[in-house]
Write a structure and sequence with these properties.
- The complex is a heterotetramer, with 2 copies of chain A (about 150 residues) and 2 copies of chain B (about 80 residues).
- Helix content of chain A is about 30%, strand content about 35%.
- Chain A has about 150 residues and is α+β, with helices and mostly antiparallel strands.
- In chain A, strand 8 (about 125-130) and strand 9 form a beta hairpin.
- In chain A, helix 2 (about 60-75) runs antiparallel to helix 3 (about 105-125).
- The relative contact order of chain A is 0.24.
- By secondary structure, chain B is of the alpha+beta class.
- Chain B has one domain: Beta-grasp domain (Ubiquitin-like (UB roll)).
- A 5-stranded mixed sheet of chain B has the order 2-1-5-3-4.
- Chains in contact: A-B, A-C, C-D.
- The interface of A and C includes residues 28, 30, 34, 77 and 110 of A.
- Strand 2 of chain A pairs antiparallel with strand 2 (about 30-40) of chain C, so a sheet runs across the interface.
């Protein structure tokens, strides 16, 4: 299991393939891979966004992400899990976060991937500051539950 | 020795600093650290707190050399 | 939304990237991509498996997969969805199925991806016939609920 | 005109064929098609049935020119 904090733009597809290639013992043992990729949109809460800065707490952020992966590994039968999270200045269409879980069975892979993502959203120390189309800066105040209809 | 206090994101901006040191005294809680470091500013309702890079509540006791952090709700992912 | 039946080995990472590149209007609009990849294992129910043949019902299989994507699109706010399913002779470590869902928000992407995968498992006309390490052939009798602990 | 009957996977292997045609008669259900095509073989408990490539139940009425399919539980994905 591995956690990466990434200060530069990254290609999530390449990251997963590279990580998976380094898991030779897992080849043909995992039947299920569940992946989530969070990508920067060019709007939020109805406002156009031109860029975003992701702040974090070096040391604690990695520790907390590692704890989340460990918790997932205790709750579900997973073979491996990998998280990459971007920090610094981010542009629309760039990847913010990648979560990948390998397991023998799909239920465990799906549940663990979702658990990691939701727990990351609510507990990993990252903070977004957006620059709107009009140049105004604002801190994003809180993460939502992730459904369109219930956005505040 | 002393306690290192850190503030992140909007909370740090609001306070105008990202960290300060504080003399250690026996029996201080995380809440006491906040009060001493901010000269009694009210604690934001939704503040999150950590001691040595692990979540801790406001009543947690701190030790000499600890790093105590205050930050707003997280918005990663 | 697109359904593909694939008689040859395919690279799921390339397939997703190619499909996503052809969605220019979606760029920077989707914040969430949820992906599931099913891969052939070299064991099943405690028996070593050397290869597998996936049979299907040409015409109905595509129709049923399209119906599942349509149902997902009515139940969740998704931007696009893509399914690729392998047929024919398959070797361990090759991809069997890819499900990808793009959405503005993570909850919709996760839920729709899981719905598509579970509904595919229970209703899409595909049948697996395994060849064990010892050369014996058997039809897989039923799909399970996808958790290790409750495998029959 | 007639009805085309198809059998898939283990069910087709068991019957020793993957399809046959059947003369259409008014008022036939999917179940009747099974009985006529298999000379009265018992219907497997877990059989799935489709008419014109859409799931249908055993009581569904068939029409001239329909394609009726019988198959075991699906195991894709």
């Amino acid at each position: 299991m591995k956690v990466e904090i990434c200060p530069e733009a990254f290609n999530p597809w390449q990251a997963i393939q590279d990580y998976q290639a380094a898991l030779p013992s897992a080849a043909a043992k995992f039947g299920a891979t569940s992946i989530f990729i969070g990508t920067m949109r060019d709007y939020n809460d109805g406002v156009g966004v031109q860029s975003m800065t992701l702040d974090y707490y070096p040391g604690m952020t990695e520790k907390q992400l590692g704890k989340i992966l460990g918790d997932a590994g205790r709750q579900w039968e997973i073979i491996d899990a990998y998280v990459v999270h971007r920090v610094g200045e981010i542009r629309p269409d760039e990847a913010i976060v990648l979560v990948a879980v390998w397991s023998a069975h799909r239920g465990d892979a799906f549940d663990a991937c979702r658990f990691i993502m939701e727990t990351l959203k609510s507990t990993a120390p990252f903070w977004k500051k957006e620059v709107s189309d009009t140049g105004q800066t604002r801190w994003v105040e809180k993460n939502t539950d992730g459904y369109k209809n219930v956005q505040p | 020795m002393s306690i290192k206090v850190r503030y992140f994101a909007s909370l740090g901006e609001h306070l105008g600093r990202s960290e300060n040191d504080l003399e250690f005294a026996q029996g201080m809680s995380v809440k006491d650290i906040w009060v001493l470091s901010t000269s009694g500013a009210p604690i934001p309702d939704n503040v999150l707190t950590a001691v040595n890079m692990e979540y801790a509540d406001l009543e947690a006791q701190v030790q000499d050399g600890d790093e105590v952090a205050f930050f707003p709700p997280v918005t990663g992912g």
